[in-house]
Write a structure and sequence with these properties.
With 215 residues, the protein is mainly alpha-helical. The chain has helices at residues 3-39, 44-59, 62-77, 86-110, 114-122, 127-157, 169-180, 184-210.
Length: 215
Amino acid sequence: MSLMTMIAKMSEGLEKTCAIFFLTLLFAIPLGMIVALLRMSKNKIISGIVRFFITVLRGTPLMLQLLAVTYGPHYLFGADISRNKLIPVVIAFSINYAAYFAEIYRGGIESIPKGQYEAAAVLGYSRLQTFMRIILPQVVKRILPSMTNEVITLVKDTSIAFAVSYEEIFTIGKQIANSQTSFMPFVVAGVFYYLFNFVVDRIMGLFEKRLNYYS
């Protein structure tokens, strides 16, 4: 198989890799904020339960969680959600990354001085207005470098979808490598991931520049 044919075949998996990436961010970013706020709840029961689930999600392999979401419903309830592999993949990735995003959000929120909340209250802001107009913009600026790291990791983690035979870039590369008995498909896959991450890094860098008050 020629190099160009190999690239063309693996390009077919790029669309599915992008689907995992963008759908995960679409669900994980807002879900992470909800989880963070529940984790910071003054109700110790709610906070404790959420903290436990975060430790489970961060303390177990994403591949294990993916297999559990894909095949668990069948063994537990007789329900099959694995026919469309994208659904369990996005569910597993979104829940996993929401746990990581939640801790990043929490760190950013807790880094804001308490005095800003008090000053906003004096000015007549409600708690929601204070959070949305004063706290959140500062939190976004502070957590963006950490979020960038997680987003870059997500690009690479999409390759884990091969465990459930979802044909993204790595899965196709692995199939070609097995049929051709060659390591070259893995090299091509690596280039795909590198270029994807290069674009992501540049875009996130532009966001950081826009939020840099001193540039």
